[in-house]
Task: structure prediction
Amino acid sequence: MKIFNLKNIGLLVLLIVAVFLPVVISDYWRFVLTIAFFYTIMAASWNLLGGYTGQFSLGHHTFAMIGAYTSTLLMQKAGAPFWVSIPAGILLTMIISSLLGVMCLRIHGIYLALITWAFAEVVRNYFRLHYAFTGGDRGIDSPLIFGTMKPTPYYYLFLGIAVLAIVLIAVIMRSKIGYYLRSIRDDPIAARSMGVDIVRYKIFVFMVASGLAGMAGVFYGHSIGLISPVMGDFNEMAMIIIFVVIGGMRTQAGPIVGAISVRYLMELLRAQSEFRIVILTAIVILIMRFFNGGLMELFRRLKKWIRRDREGPVSAYQELEQKQG
Result:
């Protein structure tokens, strides 16, 4: 595999632009991009679970909430420092996800979606109803990891976490495990007949994806200074799926493109808050109708059309001959 190919060079250029971007944008847009990076982590990790492995979970957002509450409650109730509460929040999400996986990942499809949705509602209502412990609907104050509300340090924090999550997912999907996950998604019966331990790898990917969501939730709580059961609303899960679908499911760049572009569009449409979901829904319908692979498929088609225009009719005829013979 070539390291210095055009795709990797393009990603490196985008990363360099992202590093220097805060110099030329306002605090408001730094905060917007920080939230976009948070949703990038959420979308990329759900794509690992739902896109690459075919496990359609509707409780992914709940693990971000569990991580955020765990870290904050450890600091508020037990006086734990950041270096204890943050790993504890991530670890708990991975433990809970593995236990949930043992119980429900032997099933798939709509049944898995219903079980994970029910799990998400139970957890959300627990945090809502236990007011004395969790603050109820009002939420609970979360200590700021940098001691300030200025968005610049959190921008770089979430940029680094997003890069870490994306690289980890890329490594998994390029490894032997990645081939196993694709085989489980495409034909679980054939994968089992070839000796793939389906349940084991389902639990593994569920735990990794949930751990990434938990990590995003922990740092998100310590960046905005307040966590509440709103993090567990189903709207959050719907937005994560929208990011992946619009960007391109089963692609590594799709969740990144979807999360950042849709969050930017949502900020532009903030004045029309009543119609934002309607507009996003219409965009999803149009993309799924004409570009089933999302924006990444649109980019691939544009690249193909540009290449054909450059090569001219002769190379196109040669390509047809190659296909026929």
The first helix runs from residue 6 to 20. Residues 319-325 have pLDDT under 50 and may be disordered. The longest strand covers residues 140-141. The radius of gyration is 21 Å.
